[in-house]
C-alpha cells in the first residue's frame, strides 16, 4: 500500500495520509450476513440495543428465506405428483379406449391408441425436461 501512496504523492505518515488510510479502511466493508464484531461494537456505542436488533432482523430474515425455500420445494413436489397422476389417468383411459376399439373395431387403431396413450405422456415429459434444460443453458 505504501507504493500506491508514493505513486500518488501522499505521505502515509502525514495527517492527510492517515485520513486517507482511515477512509480506505472504512470503505473496505465486509462480506457475510452480519457485520464483523468491531463494527457491531461501534453500533453498540451508538445505541445499546442496536446490535440485538440487527441480529434479530438477520435471524428473522434467515428463517423467512428458509421457509420460502421449503414452500417452493413443496410446490415443485406437488406439481410433479399431479403430473404423474394425470399421466396415469391418461394412460389408463387410453388403454380402455384401445381395448374398446380393439374389440369392436380395428386392432391396428387399437395398437396405435395404446402406444400413444402409454408412451405419449412419458414422451411429453422427457421432451419438456429436455427443452427446459436447453432454456437454462441459453440463460
List the defining traits of the structure above.
139 residues; 0% strand
Describe, in plain words, how this protein is organized in 3D:
With 139 residues, the protein is mainly alpha-helical. Helix content is 84%, strand content 0%. It has helices spanning 2-8, 15-27, 37-46, 50-104, 107-138. Helix 4 (50-104) packs antiparallel against helix 5.
**Strand tally, please?**
0
Mean pLDDT level? 83
Give the N-to-C terminal Cα separation: 40 Å
Give the DSSP E fraction (strand runs of 2 or more residues): under 5%
What does the main sheet amount to?
none
Overall structural domain count:
1
* Rg estimate, integer Å: 33 Å
**If helices are DSSP runs of H or I spanning 4 or more residues, what is the number of helices?**
5
| Order of H and E elements | HHHHH
Look at the helices and sheets and give the structural class: mainly alpha
What would the principal axes of the Cα set say about the shape? elongated
Return residue spans where pLDDT drops below 50 for at least 5 consecutive residues: none
| Helix-residue proportion | over 70%
Topology:
Layout: H1 2-8, H2 15-27, H3 37-46, H4 50-104, H5 107-138
Helix pairs in contact: 4-5
Structure, briefly:
The chain is mostly helical and 139 residues long.
